[in-house]
Amino acid sequence: MLLSINPINPNPLRVKQVVDVLKNDGIIIYPTDTVYGLGCSIFSKKAMKRLHIIKKVNQKKPFTFICANQTEVQEYSQGIKTNIFKLLRRKLPGPYTFVFKASKIVPKMMLTPRSTVGMRWPDHPIANEIVAALGHPILSSSLRMSEKELYDDPHKLHEKYKKQVDLIVDGGIIFAEHSTIIDFSQGDPEIIRHGKGPVDWLKNE
């Protein structure tokens, strides 16, 4: 199913349709400020298994938590120092994935071998409204057309994945680019992947 949602002013009833799918172990494709993501509820073991099958990766492959606000980022992370907390307030929402040690409320099936979790708070109304209405983060992964090319058109995604997922949100064509990944789990920041978010500010941290 392809569901069109206004990316500037999302219709609450349409957002509810998406949330209902997630609450029933469904998988969605939805827009963020960086890419179209493949997502499910972090509390759905059934959906998570399907996610790994669609992505063709093993269950140890770490995915990202998509949050709706800074409170959720903090709830599902631990050991965030005061200076990092201030940093989050300046850089989020935005095109970053920050890696932290996972808090105790993160489902065990979602943990990496290092007990870390990648946290995103995207600067995109549709993604934020979906997660806010759901009440907890979405487990998410990006979708590629090829090794070097990301999907930017929801209609192409519909053609490819309509039989594998339960709902595809049409938020319009986006300029697709990966988020920048920065790992804070060991204390000092480590750039894991350069992406849409600039990193020059790290020199001052």
| Main CATH class | Alpha Beta
CATH architecture: Alpha-Beta Complex
- Mean pLDDT across the residues is 94
- Main sheet summary: 11 strands, mixed
Low-confidence stretches: none
Shape type: globular
DSSP strand count? 11
Structural domain count: 1
Superfamily (CATH H level) name:
DHBP synthase
% residues in beta strands: 15-25%
- As a percent range, the share of helical residues equals 25-40%
Please write the string of helix (H) and strand (E) elements.
EHEEHEHEHEEHEHEEE
Overview of the structural elements:
With 205 residues, the chain is an alpha/beta fold. It has a single domain, classed as DHBP synthase, CATH 3.90.870.10. The chain contains 6 helices and 11 strands. It has helices at residues 12-23, 45-55, 70-75, 82-91, 125-134, 154-161; strands spanning 2-4, 28-31, 36-41, 64-66, 77-78, 96-102, 116-120, 138-142, 167-170, 180-183, 190-193. Strands 1, 2, 3, 4, 5, 6, 7, 8, 9, 10 and 11 form an 11-stranded mixed sheet that branches. β2 (28-31) and β3 (36-41) form a beta hairpin. The chain is globular and about 45 Å long. It starts with a strand and ends in a 12-residue tail after the last strand. 39% of the residues are buried. The model has no long low-confidence stretch (mean pLDDT 94).
